[in-house]
Amino acid sequence: MIRVTIWNEFVHEQEQNKLGEVIRQFYPTGIHAYLRDALKADDLDIRIASLDKAEQGLPDAVLNNTDVLLWWGHCAHAKVDDALVDRIQLRVQA
Question: How distant, in Å, are the alpha carbons of 13, 37, 39, 50, 59 from that of 89?
Fold first, then answer.
């Protein structure tokens, strides 16, 4: 079983403005949820995570149990903690 984590900023989808309305037409629960459903397969264990969750969605327990990380970043790069970026880099290198 391949353990996949799909991470999304999940910012625009939640905005209460015209942009948010347009994006929710295509991704009502976020692009991360859309991708999870679109990529569903018997040999994949897919979880979703986002910036607004505890530990920005990637606590060590999740990150260390991830074989493939799909990262969707667009407008909130500066909001991602440097410590998380360092942990992700170490996990990828491991």
Answer: 27, 27, 24, 18, 14
